[in-house]
Every structure is written in structure tokens, then in C-alpha cells.
Amino acid sequence: MAGKDFYFSSGILSGLGRLFFLRVPQVADEGSAPARLLGSMVREGDGGLFGNSEYPIPENSFILGAVLASAQKVLDLPITDLVNEIDLAGFTQALKVDKSVAANGEATFPGAPMSAGIGISYKRVRSIEVAFEAGARKRLIPRDLLIEAYRAMAKASGNFPAVFFDNDRMVVDQVLLVREMTITVTSDADFSASFNAKAEETNALNVGVTYTRKSSRSYAMSLDGSRDHLFGVGAVEADKFVD
């Protein structure tokens, strides 16, 4: 399973570290699996995605939050110390996109939820800009705390699940949750009349997404802020902390 099935870009948010950005954000209502992915185990993908040799497959592979719960236990720290949150409202970032993200060059509009995706030609994408608005925040487990927790668990490895130390797994140590977000895509060619029509149809459905034509070659897609979505994922090969 290729990483391009999940992500359209990977990049470093200024001062905030590297994240993989989901082609289709996952609804992250309170208590849902996407909302609880931080501190969970996921499978490790391999294939040089966006210049990286490994990437996280954004699906829980064990017990949700298992590593976070164990770290809290071995470090004897409150969850407020183990999970930091950074407000990203008002932050704008340009993202690089791999134009081979889809086999035929076409995939859903980047960052559009499943119910509101419209196909675009990735081969013609010139630029993508993301504007994070109200409700956008990055949640993370500080790296030094995660390292300290793993070293403590390794000393009593028999008391912890073997999957914690599996070199084919990664620990999700950061997530990007969004509510209001605008993604602007600029193409090397005019958006077609068919795309314009589908955008208008989607707007009329009131599914929490609005498409706005900025110019003949530029379209913006906005989430209305009604629900949280998991949009970015970061993970680490934590087994290497104890090699």
C-alpha cells in the first residue's frame, strides 16, 4: 500500500516539525479513532514518500493511545504534561505536492473530506497553500519525554506489549486537527467547466465544504468549522530509541 494512497504532501511547518498531510482528512469527533490517534501504534510504510524513506499509515494498528497511556504510567506524569497543544489559527503554509500522487495524475481535491471531494489533475498543480483558521491546532508528545518513556519501558520490556518494540511499527507523536481551513490550489491550466459545475453542486449540498473560484486557474476549498478533522500526522520509529 503506497503512501500516496493516504497523503498528498509532506512538509515542515515553520518551527513545528514535519507532518504528512492527508489527501482525505478524517472526521475526528470526540472519542473517535482519528481523535485518539496521538500516542497510538501504526504500521510503517516504506518507499521514499516525498523524500522520506518511512511514513506512518494513518490507521491505528493496536490499542488506541496505548503508548501514551504507558508513558503516563512509567513517567508518572499528568496527561497535561505529556500532551502539548499549539494553536495554529492564522497560520498559512505553502505545501509541495508530488504530481505523481495519483496513477493517472488525477485525485480528489487535496484536503477535501470524503463527502465533498472533486477530482483535479495533480500533474497540472502549480501550488497549494493552506490557511489554518479557528480551531486548528497541533497536538504532540514532546520527543524527550517519549524517549525517556521508551527507555524506561525497555528496562521492563516483558511488562509491555511486544508491538511497542516492533521495527515495522511507528508511534504517532503529533497530529494536526483542523476545523476551519482553506486550501487554495493554483493550476497550470484553466479549471474546466465540468469542475466548476461540480463545485457548485457540492456547495449546494451543504456538506460543510465550500468551493470558491478565485480565478480561471485557482480554486479554494474551505471547511466550515462544524467538525474536527485529522489533517496531518507525524510519527517516529520509537523502537530505535532503545536499540
What does this structure look like?
This protein has four helices and 13 strands. The protein is α+β, with helices and mostly antiparallel strands. The strands form two sheets. Strands 1, 2, 3, 4, 5, 6, 9, 10, 11, 12 and 13 form an eleven-stranded antiparallel β-sheet that branches. The model has no long low-confidence stretch (mean pLDDT 91).
Structure characteristics:
4 helices; 13 strands; 42% strand; alpha+beta; two-stranded antiparallel ribbon; 243 residues
Short overview:
The chain is 16% helix and 42% strand.
**Secondary structure: helix percent:** 10-25%
What is the 3D shape? elongated
Question: Structural class given helices, strands, pairing?
Answer: alpha+beta
> Order of SSEs, N→C?
EEEEHHEEEEEEHEHEE
What is the beta-strand fraction? 35-45%
How many domains make up the coordinates?
1
Question: Can you lay out the helices and strands and say which pair or pack?
Answer:
Blueprint: E1 7-13, E2 17-27, E3 41-46, E4 54-60, H1 66-75, H2 79-82, E5 84-87, E6 91-95, E7 106-108, E8 119-121, E9 125-132, E10 137-140, H3 143-154, E11 169-187, H4 193-205, E12 209-215, E13 218-236
Antiparallel strand pairs: 1-2, 2-13, 3-4, 3-11, 5-10, 6-9, 7-8, 9-11, 10-11, 11-13, 12-13
Helix pairs in contact: 1-3
